[in-house]
Amino acid sequence: MQIFAGFKIPQDRLYRPDELYASDQGHLVASCAAIAPFRQGSKEVRAGLTFPGAPPLSLVIEHFENLLDLWDEPNHPGIEGDTLSKSLGMIYRALGARMSNLRNGEDDLDEDWDEAPEDVSASEVLDRFSEVACLWEDGEKRFWIPRYAFSVPVPFFGHRRAQLKLSESVADAGYEVLGRRSAVQASDVIDFLEELEFEYGDAPLPESMQSLVVSVLRLLDGDPSVGERANEIPLLTAAGRLFRPFLLFEDDDAYHRPYIHPDAVHVVHSQVSTNLSFQLGVPSLAQAIEERMAVRPELASDAELIQKCNRVQRTLHSSEFEAGIRRILRDRPEHGRIPDISWLRRIEIIPTLSFEIELWLAHEGRNA
Asked: In the prediction, which pLDDT does 82 show?
């Protein structure tokens, strides 16, 4: 009986036929039901002697949970990887055969399964295992939480997610029953980003992880659903950190950028799509920055400098200059209606010896 993972020696007593499962059901119930130590004959003979057929799903799930618990214990007591793989394959096939439309006519288990008691619903199974590492990756000998496993390749998630797909369709359907993803959705990307955000906090991500983040963010670009979850989606910053969009700015102010303290303003990483930033409501740094005089400047008394400033001021106030600006704006239809530029005539050019400018984020009212 050691061929069955998690096999538990039953109580030493006499058993009724309806208490003894056939040995070919051992992989499904070995930890929680008695297995007959003899062959039970044909299906008709078993039925005539009241031996049970396919076990109820509740019993299979109980055995499945026992195997998961045993594997979690140090050194996996009483379980070898290859034996476990075979038992799990039978369990996944049972779930797939009972709870999907797939059938394999050459498999006796699938034929018997139609007669098994329907005592657990698909939704109950999904809820029960949604956050349990229960999908087996045979090559690595490990279990995955269903929402971390996909039927399609997911290289952009690195080793934090996996493609799990069994060659046998009925067993593979069992993965679907347990909650494996058939495609990558926006919610999967957001879960991945939130996981990294929680793990790294305010610290920069390693270069390799930053590359993964850039790749997964591309999956969100153009997805109409992301705007509704804008505040839930961490974005990569130029410093390699993850911050929510409402804490970020689009890096579109090359003029002021060298004068801004790196920790004062967080800007979006250059490889993150500007379209995605726009979808998530990331504001423009150029539009948010304001220049303000720090102190009243000391006026210059140099006559030549004053004369030059007056000349520039007369040019700005001239009707010819205003007409030229209007013509430029009119020739650029993407700007739409020509804005009011009468303020040009109110500009004063004042010569100073020096002046000190402060940069402010106008929408937050703080120094940059």
From this structure: 83
